[in-house]
Amino acid sequence: MPVPAQQALRRDWPQHTYVAQYFQVHTDNPQPRLIRQAVAILCDGGVIAYPTDSSYALGCRIGDKSALERIRRIRRLDTRHNFTLVCRDLSELSTYARITNADYRVLRANTPGPFTFILPATREVPRRLLDGRRNMIGVRIPDHRIVQALLTELAEPLMSVTLTLPDSELPLSDPLEIRERLEHEIDLVIDGGPCGFEPTTVIVLKDGAIEVARQGKGDVTAFVQAGP
Question: Is the whole model's pTM more than 0.70, yes or no?
């Protein structure tokens, strides 16, 4: 008899003692106490599930190699899969991505929002996060108050990937289901209500050119009109 996908996901993992905490956070007015506790979990090496303006995501601190590997195991990702740096604002984003004046105008007009921008990386980005062939990094600034509160308290980007499990084609959107399926694999579920299933739109900005690499959530008209 075939092994159920979720059992197969866990069979070859080491035994952990994680029991995820579960925070119900107001979408419009995130409770500062819960945001501080969430950031403390991140700073202690934690992996969190959190809502964004596109879908739920898994996140950890940018320099936390152990947490990164835990996310890779959960998602069954190889080392070639690119993570996204979720940033608070353009100033923080520019620390990790090289931005020309033309790039800045595009970013300023389209952030915050459901867009991931692929840009040349700076030396501040850990090499394990880079596209080795092109030295590029994915960055984004979500339009979501819970994420903005987390990033403000953390004062650095979240290393992030969409919460899509190996046995699914779509991301998980129900925080209660996320807790049920990942309670012993992650440290915290932030319940910000149901999220959508649509991924971000991916935009490549390089050498003055604009390319829509993946169309997802968000209007791409401005990018298509501005492209080569």
Answer: yes
